[in-house]
Write a structure and sequence with these properties.
Layout: E1 13-18, E2 24-29, E3 33-40, E4 45-52, H1 53-62, H2 65-71, H3 79-97
Antiparallel strand pairs: 1-2, 3-4
Helix pairs in contact: 1-2
Length: 98
Amino acid sequence: MARRCEFTGKGALVGNNVSHANNKTKTRFMPNLCNVSLMSDAMGLSYRFRISSIALKSVEHRGGLDAFLLKASDCELSEKALKLKRAIARKVEAQKAA
C-alpha cells in the first residue's frame, strides 16, 4: 500500500539528516497518515479513507466530506475518492432538481 494521502496526494519526501559533524545520511520523511471513517451526508453512508492529518483538518474546516470533495480538484484525489465525488455530485444535482 502506497504511503499517499487519498485526498491531497501528499507522499513521502526524500532528504538528508545532517549531524553536528555535518555527516549526511539519506532519510524519507513520511506523511502523517491515519485511517478514518467519514460520513457522507448526501449518500447517508460512512466511508473509510487513509488520509493525512492535515487533510482531516481541512475536511472539518470545509464543513464535512461532501463539501471537501466537491471543492477538491480531480488531479489530487485517489480513484476511490473521485468515484465518491462523482456520486455525491449526481446525488446533489438530483436533490436540487426535485
